[in-house]
Amino acid sequence: MKKVLIISYLFNPSKEIGSRRWSKIAKKFLENGIQVDVLTSTISKQEDGINRQYFKPLFPRVLLKQSLTFMDKVLYKISLFFLSLLKGTPYDRSILSGKFIAQKARKLLKEKEYDSVIVSVAPFNMAFEIVKIIKEFPNTKFIVDFRDPWTWDSNYGMDIISNKKRKLEEYKERKVSDEFGLIIVPSEFMNVYFSQKYNKEALVLP
Q1: C-alpha–C-alpha distance, residues 131 and 146, integer Å
Q2: pTM here?
Q3: Any residues with CB less than 8 A from the CB of 73 and at least 6 apart, and which?
Q4: Which of 173, 91, 159, 158 is nearest to 127 (CA)?
Q5: Are 104 and 112 in contact (CB under 8 A)?
Q6: 178 near 197, Cβ under 8 Å?
């Protein structure tokens, strides 16, 4: 039986958009006799045949709120200040948890020897951390699924972070694009970007 590990920051039963894509595809995998494990921050008690492993999100919750009280605004500024001291964009939800996600993935890979590992991004930093363990598992295919643009859009603070931080994000994007064996994107527009920027064709999976 084929074994797949899906690393998705959010997963079913989360209602956020980032959880939907691979929650649906995971069900299709199961229907086709593929063993599916998921590494996620979304806690679930569902018995759906998917083995879930968890990591702590660590990202300050106040930065995700839509409506802020006065105290929330204070905590927001404090949280953003401290995240800004780290390397990369402070708006990446895996900026604090990325290394722990990679450590957990390494442990699972040693235990179960997956045929494929699929990392769904955004958030992006966790894919960069996974790059650091890829060479340890030459018999596993590493796949990155870009649900969103990384450095070539204004999302995730790309239009407001410093030039130094932006260059670091561009470096991360290149490493992820180079080191993962397959890139998946939801649109031809994104495929054109990877083809022109990194000379690498992506699989378009709407």
Answers
A1: 15
A2: 0.94
A3: none
A4: 173
A5: no
A6: no
Angstrom distance (rounded) from CA 5 to CA 105: 9
At which residue do the structure tokens 């992820």 appear? 176
Reduce the DSSP state of residue 127 to 3 states and report it.
helix
> What tokens appear for 85 in the block?
């001291």
Cα-only R_g, the chain: 17
Q: What is the dihedral of CA 155, 157, 161, 166, to 10 degrees?
A: -40
Cα–Cα distance measured from residue 161 to residue 181, given in angstroms and rounded to the nearest whole number: 30
**Is the Cβ–Cβ distance between 120 and 8 less than 8 Å?**
yes
Angle between helices 163-179 and 188-198 (to 10 degrees): 100
- Find where tokens 């990194």 sit: 198
Can you count the helices (H) and strands (E) in the chain?
Answer: 6, 7
Q: Which two tokens stand for residue 128?
A: 């960069």
Ordered per-residue pLDDT tens for the chain, 206 residues: 899 999 999 998 888 877 888 989 999 999 999 999 999 999 988 778 899 999 999 999 999 998 999 999 999 999 999 999 999 999 999 999 999 999 999 999 999 999 999 999 999 999 999 999 999 999 999 999 999 999 998 889 999 999 999 999 999 999 999 999 999 999 999 999 999 999 999 999 98
